[in-house]
């Protein structure tokens, strides 16, 4: 079974490329208009998460972080051949957006960035994301492009197995809420329910 690194309620250490620990912080500030929406309180600096990237969308277009993070964006890193963790996490993300859709609340874009560009072609990403939510955007690219995005988001991603096609990927399993000009607003751990995620996202939309 794939290893997933758990996020505590009070602190998180996200393993970066090469195993370097990066510490985040989302402690509410006095002038933080999203303070009532946050539930993460972790040590370090939230500004460490996110940054420039150039990737290829599921429709084959080259996109940058400015094209993708153009509003509230729910960003998850994984891969389509993941046997258990990624499908559960992405279905939860998609269900949270569906719950908001049912209330007529728009404004959050679900994003899925692969850590396995060797197998995850734009076509593969499109089919996968369409199943999770019709508005979910799948992103892939060259290995170098994906590595840069992984590094920017301090994601742990490591291949396990020598077979060129039949292998697994160990990776961190957080979902990040990003916004242009704001950076990371919230980090969601695996245990959160679709209902609770939708509730928090609605708060962020209302205050964005």
UniProtKB/TrEMBL annotation:
Pfam hit, one: SCO1-SenC
Signal peptide residues are: 1-21
Check the record and name the InterPro entries matching this protein: SCO1/SenC, Thioredoxin-like_sf
Q: What is this protein called?
A: Protein SCO1/2
Sorted alphabetically, which Gene3D superfamilies does this protein's record hold? Glutaredoxin (3.40.30.10)
Instruction: Tell me the organism.
Output: Rubricella aquisinus
One annotated GO molecular function is: metal ion binding
Report the domain of life of the source organism.
Bacteria
Q: Does the keyword Oxidoreductase apply?
A: no
Residues binding Cu cation are 82, 86, 171
Disulfide bond positions = 82-86
The family classification in the record reads: Belongs to the SCO1/2 family.
Kindly state which keywords UniProt assigns to this record, in alphabetical order: Copper, Disulfide bond, Metal-binding, Signal
């Amino acid at each position: 079974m794939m290893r997933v690194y758990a996020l505590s309620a009070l602190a998180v250490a996200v393993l970066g490329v090469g195993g370097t620990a990066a510490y985040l912080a989302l402690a509410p500030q006095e002038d933080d208009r999203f303070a009532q929406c946050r539930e993460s309180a972790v040590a370090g600096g939230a500004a460490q998460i996110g940054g420039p990237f150039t990737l290829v969308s599921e429709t084959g277009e080259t996109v940058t972080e400015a094209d993708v993070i153009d509003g509230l964006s729910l960003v998850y890193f994984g891969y389509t051949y993941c046997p258990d963790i990624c499908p559960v996490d992405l279905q939860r993300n998609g269900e949270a957006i569906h719950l908001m859709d049912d209330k007529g609340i728009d404004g959050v874009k679900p994003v899925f960035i692969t850590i396995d560009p060797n197998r995850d072609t734009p076509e593969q990403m499109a089919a996968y994301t369409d199943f999770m939510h019709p508005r979910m955007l799948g992103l892939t690219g060259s290995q170098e492009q994906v590595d840069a995005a992984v590094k920017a988001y301090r994601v742990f991603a490591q291949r396990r197995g020598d077979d060129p096609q039949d292998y697994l990927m160990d990776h961190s399993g957080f979902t990040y809420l990003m916004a242009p000009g704001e950076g990371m607003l919230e980090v969601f751990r695996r245990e959160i329910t679709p209902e609770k995620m939708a509730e928090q996202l609605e708060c962020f939309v209302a205050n964005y």
